[in-house]
Amino acid sequence: MACCGASLTPLAQHAKSLHTSRADGVPMHFPMYTVSLDTLLEMTKVEPHEVLKAKDMLVDFKGSMGKAAFVSHQWVAPNHPDPEFKQMRVLQGALQEMKMGNLQRIPVELVSEAAEGHVKPLPTSRLLSEPLFFWYDYFSCPQKDRVSRSMTSLFSPEGESGSKLLDAINSIPAYVQESSFFFGLVPVLENPHSSNLITPLTWQSRGWCRLERTCGELAQQHSCIMVKSPKDVELMAGTCAFLRAGCGPVGEGIFTVPQDRLKLGPVLVAAVKRRMLSLLRAQDLPGYRALLNQQHILLRGMTCEAAEAFLEMEDPKPACEDSWGSSLVRSFFHQNGFRNVWETDSGGWSPLHYAALKGEPLLVEELLKIRADPNQGSKKVHPAIGQPAGTPPLSIACIFKNNEAAKLLISAKARIASRGFVRGPFNCAAHANNTEAIQILCHAGCSPVQTNLFGISVMDGAAYHGALEAMHELLSQSTASALNPTSALYNAAMGGGSADVVQLLLEMRADMNAQTDEHWKRTAMIRTLYKVKVLQHRLGKVTMVSKILYHAKGATPLMIALLTGQHECASALIAAGADLTPRNSRGWTAADFLQGHSAPEFLREAFEGRVEACQRVSQLSRGWVQLEL
């Protein structure tokens, strides 16, 4: 029965009432100290807050002064973020490339381009059109009484400066909100203070970096400028961050001091609540629904309660009695502004999609009882989640590791094959490194070797996203040869090819020197994409996808890794003995792909005949301890 009436739902009415109200500012408990672009470029070492303040080099940033950039980075040493000035030198180099006009656009990185075709490159003129100021934790936050934090939490203030540091930490959401740009400083560097490697993957896995990135996404900074080297700068879309190797909730990140994880919970909850209210004020109901039902994911690993919904269930009577079901469903519809189970919102999602995101099994079960369609595909790319049109609820459950909900959907006859989807349930489980979902789907009859519309296999997707645990699970469900490790190695070279991923694929007998064109032309869909992108590239519309496909014929995995700036993957291939001499169909060797890039020293040495540095980097990235002989 059609829903009676077309009046606004209580949620829509509430959002409309908020639309003209004054937005609450994000509280800032400590001034936003920054340095100007010119000051940053003149630095020869990274000095603490107190030193720069005494030199009168810090600027208390206000929006009227220009634009601010928030710099997120991984600390190299316990008491100093960059003792050898290697990370900062990379950022300086990238900014100099922009100022000199050598880098006029920041291209969209491959995962974001593939997941969200609407993301556009960022003109660097937008960064430089106004005075630019940089927030960087070591010189923007008090450091005077900071001691080794291997045993002491940052939330154990000592004296006045300790409390000021705590105030600055609690102000991180405000700093991000005030910033027009969010930088991830992620070069591949050896850590001189321990036997490991600093990489984009380790940055994504650190709890503090996850907090900063999440605050950026909540502050509508949906894109992160990833600085890998002075000439390898990419734009990463925040809406597909959960598919990346190492990414995940703040509470499941790595913390040197475990209790910091618990203390950050209130900071994150407050940021989530502010963002939800902001979305309601903007009458962005799909964005609000996405965040309301995603809270439990953002807060995994933290012992704190999610922000309460903004509507009380005052009147339990539905507009249409026969379409609402149980009190649980009525409450869900009320809080999410739905009228019935078949409705699709302006973001292209049905109630069951949001329930799969929420992951509450009883809610999913109740919606299925009132005839929710487990195979209903989304109508468009969701603006806040980023999944493509046609995505079914089961894929959403698999992406966000709501595995009990996934079981219920499967029992309700949700389709499990991936062939009819760009991102079917099995592909999504592998992308998200969801080993339990892989087991569930295999038990339900899924084949580990199935492919999607583009001929991309589940193992290809897992390797592309650096999902090492998922790769191991797939291997336990099939045989190495059936999983086509050579194809997966090409995908690893394009995306999340850590040294561990490369090593596993080589152990599965992947051909590291393969030169094949078949990988790029498996299905009609990928052949069409190949032709279109190569033509676009020739006409000057250059993207990361077009560059890869233009050079694909005859390219080796090493060539692809160098082309996409996957420096850790390239070092692992070279360390394993990859041949540097083959040429692709354009006549390019691997060395040619370094032209125009500022490759790390360990890669430059390899092409001069010295591979020892690549071998050391590969060992460090796999957690091996290098002993002095």
UniProtKB/TrEMBL annotation:
Record's keyword annotation contains Repeat: yes
Record keywords: ANK repeat, Repeat
Positions of ANK repeats: 347-379, 484-517, 553-585
InterPro entries, per the entry: Ankyrin_rpt, Ankyrin_rpt-contain_sf, Multifunctional_ANK_Repeat
Signal peptide boundaries: none
Database matches in Gene3D superfamilies: Ankyrin repeat-containing domain
Keyword Repeat: yes
Name of the protein: Anks1b protein
Record organism: Symbiodinium natans
Gene name in the database record: anks1b
